[in-house]
Amino acid sequence: MTTFKDNKKIFLLMVPTAFFWAGAFIAGKIAVVEFSLFTLTFIRFLTALAIIFPMMIKYEPKNWKISLKELPIFILTGFLGIFTYHVLFFIALTKTTAINSSLIGATNPMATTIIAALFLNEKIGWKRAGAILLAFMGVLLTASRGNIEAFMTMSFNIGDIMMLCAVISFAFYSVVSKKIMNKYSPLIILTYSFLTAVVMLIPFVIIEKPMDYIWGISLKAWMAVFYMGIFASAIGYLLQQFSIKAYGASKTMLFVNLVPVFSIIISVIVLGETVNFITLLSAAIIIAGVYLSSKLK
Fold it and tell me: How far is Cα 183 from Cα 187, in angstroms, rounded to an integer?
């Protein structure tokens, strides 16, 4: 049974990760205006790779070198969790509303839980399902700000479809990562996933010809990209990988429900938005769902 000490550890791992990812949503909205799609993704993960590759060599001196026959699994994780997810995510940011993207993104824990149950034999159980449902209800309340009409008038466009595909891709990435953690450390998985994704992106970056416009990009956009590369990618992904190995994919991904909560907080600080009763209520519901799920087996 999950102990109080375990609960504390997973909170220390995943709460900062959720905060970094919430900031990435805002940073992505800023950066995608000035950067082309593949170039933005490339610079983000090249920055992250520059941080974690030396870490891998330092902390995995005997294990960091892999053979060519081991490369396909890292190509898969890089393709699912880095290349595909983030390309689709940035496309979605340009083509759908904040409510739609928040609602669809909130299905990530449910998608991961279901896939983990199918491929990793992780048990869901009625109590876990109830905790997930509770947290998801809080996410719905957060995304709609208590406005029922937002759900009644919602229509799916190409951005919504892209975001849903991104969610499914990331869920598979989480499950694949869990399956290979018995052989590879989270740091190795993360580093080679970043590396393979960066290599995959090179041909697309060449086609976009970023040198034609990159010198005119604002400092604000550059800061947004580097924030995503350092905090949301290098640090955030690493914390997530350790959490998946220790506590499972479904519990870890439940903390994605905290992202809209932190997004509201950051919006208040950065954008000057106001907080009302609905905002506070939804935050309490989400946190309660996360806590209850982390206590279950």
Answer: 12
Mean pLDDT by 10 residues, the chain (297 residues): 61 86 86 94 96 90 85 93 93 74 71 80 78 76 66 64 86 86 85 95 96 94 95 87 75 76 78 70 76 65
Cα gap 41→44, rounded to integer Å: 5
Question: How far apart (Å, rounded) are the C-alpha atoms in residues 143 and 199?
Answer: 35
State which H helix or E strand residue 254 sits in: helix 249-254
Q: What is the pTM of this model?
A: 0.80
Cβ–Cβ < 8 Å for 194, 177: no
Contact 144, 99 (CB under 8 A): yes
Domain that holds residue 104: 4-295
Q: For the CA atoms of the chain, what is the radius of gyration?
A: 19
Give the type of residue at 258.
Answer: L
Residue indicated by tokens 């997004």: 263
C-alpha distances out from residue 98 to 24, 102, 105, 162, Å? 14, 6, 10, 14
